[in-house]
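SAMPLE LOG
Freezer: B-3
Tube label: C17
Construct: single chain, 37 aa
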Amino acid sequence: MPGRPRKSPNPRYRVRRNYEKRILIGREPGQNWMRTR
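STRUCTURE (predicted):
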């Protein structure tokens, strides 16, 4: 799971970063968002 943050001080930030990256690299933002969530 790429959207699964590990022991980090800002897990939300990391998830957001993955979400944005997936949106840029992915073709379907909806599917990518679900995958990262």
